[in-house]
Specification:
alpha+beta
Length: 63
């Protein structure tokens, strides 16, 4: 259950910071999905979430 809440929080943060993340190259990785339904754009950054998770894990193990 805890991992589900963390994943949901990560998606909310990604959606809020989407413009800034696209400027640095995140959000356009393979596995990041964006589609329009009913006039609203939905964004699911699976690829970026995996990459940031791996980086955070490596930093956590290093420290």
């Amino acid at each position: 259950m805890r991992w589900l809440l963390i994943t949901l929080a990560a998606f909310v943060v990604f959606n809020g910071l989407r413009g800034w993340l696209e400027k640095i190259g995140l959000g356009r990785l393979p596995g990041d999905f964006s589609f329009r339904v009913g006039g609203r754009e939905w964004y699911f950054p699976f690829g970026s979430a995996v990459l940031i998770s791996l980086i955070a894990t490596l930093i956590g193990r290093w420290l």
